[in-house]
């Protein structure tokens, strides 16, 4: 449904997006996560046909974004990360304006606009001036605008940015409804946990490059090569520390402060080598009481990907 092939964008000599290869199938909600300046908006603007790539190509619903931009625009709804100024419009008029620019007749607009206002919980605000709406309401109105021509694909650039927790939840609920309607959605954020909950797949982008992609659990599993383990022993701390320090796949062994008999270390091995480690510790008569793998939360996962990328780039 959305395909990019070596998509690259240079601003002068600066490369904002480099050899980006994405393949997003129909009905998927795909989250693009990356820090400020990672290249998310640039990528989304190219997909929305608002900017040409320097090289590489992209296809939406089989249409080439550079050769068939008009066809692409018919199948996509784009929500930019910046909301313009529309001081002369009321919410409903604003949607009429965009509906008309997509060629919808008055009758079509009168049918679809109340449905959209309902979907984004703005029915009660249809006569309010756009500029007087709260940020969350403006974002939702902007989403309604992106949906006016019933596009199959949604390109949503940080739709939840700057929203308070309640408004974020509201936005998330609307996106869930859109997913249930079968839309294919590409959505960006710089907060991984925020995307994880609603996305089928995630791509992590750093300095314009895709550094990890897959389902949330695949990305987590990939990073479990650096899991943290805490073992509890009922004595012989020094011998236990020496034992774990002597193991190849164990790193940074330390005694947990205030945790009686607890030793913490990083572990690079697979699940089976973790089993082998436990067996070896038992055979070495380490007085084991517990062996606990610390789950990483998604924010840790994201920071770890970034650290790995930095180390590789050095
Ligand atoms: N018109 C431009 N001219 C020159 N450089 C640009 C231009 N637009 C963006 N950049 C640079 O390209 C890089 C990627 O920017 P982009 O806006 O795509 O990032 P982003 O991931 O969307 O960031 P944010 O989360 O802050 O919106 C940044 O370093 C930015 O400064």
Automatic annotation (TrEMBL):
Assigned keywords, A-Z: ATP-binding, Nucleotide-binding, Transport
GO terms of molecular function: ATP binding
Residues in ABC transporter domain copies: 2-232
InterPro entries: AAA+_ATPase, ABC_transporter-like_ATP-bd, P-loop_NTPase
Annotated Pfam families: ABC_tran
Membrane-crossing segments per the record: none
Lineage: superkingdom: Bacteria
Coiled coil regions in record: none
Xref: PANTHER family: ABC TRANSPORTER, ABC TRANSPORTER, ATP-BINDING PROTEIN
Membership in a protein family: Belongs to the ABC transporter superfamily.
Protein name: ABC-2 type transport system ATP-binding protein
Organism of provenance: Evansella vedderi
Lineage: Bacteria, Bacillati, Bacillota, Bacilli, Bacillales
